[in-house]
Design goal:
Number of strands: 6
Structural class: alpha+beta
Radius of gyration: 17 Å
Strand content: 15-25%
Strand order of the largest sheet: 4-3-2-1-6-5
Order of helices and strands: HEEEEEEHH
Length: 149
């Protein structure tokens, strides 16, 4: 079996963070504005700092909880998610690599793991989540979930 090239700590597709917008070619026409006038919130532009705290988090099979904390560290990006009552208020650490897209209009972060995979993740340790050894443990768990998929 070949080693996985999945890096759980980086955004797999930075456009997912910006609402999934695709890049424009020099000869492409500007996108059409919504009929409502486009006066609602929109995805931020490149380089705009994002605050995902409070966004809902959705797994492939249902809601996980909401973002309690988010990192913007260069090499290790992650979300701390408060799961609420479905797993007794447990907090989990989700690497940024699990995020498939962010819907800023609905304030929702979509991840490509199931609720069960998140539930079985290593326990969140508020004293160790900034330490490389702990992040390795979390990263190894999520790498293995991709191998099994």
């Amino acid at each position: 079996m070949q080693p996985s090239t999945f890096n759980p700590w980086t955004w797999r597709d930075p456009s997912a963070l910006a609402g999934g917008y695709s890049g424009a070619a020099p000869d492409s026409a500007p996108p059409e504005r919504p009929e409502s006038g486009g006066d609602g919130p929109d995805a931020p532009g490149p380089g705009t700092p994002l605050d995902l705290v409070g966004y809902r988090v959705e797994a492939t099979d249902g809601r996980i909880g909401s973002v309690d904390e988010a990192s913007d560290d260069t090499d290790t990006r992650w979300l701390v998610v408060e799961t609420g009552p479905w797993i007794f208020g447990r907090r989990v650490l989700l690497p940024a690599g699990t995020v498939t897209r962010v819907d800023h209009l609905d304030r929702t972060v979509h991840v490509d793991r199931t609720r069960d995979q998140v539930k079985k993740s290593p326990a969140f340790d508020p004293d160790a989540y900034g330490q490389p050894g702990y992040r390795d443990q979390i990263g190894d768990y999520y790498r293995e979930t991709y191998r099994q998929s």
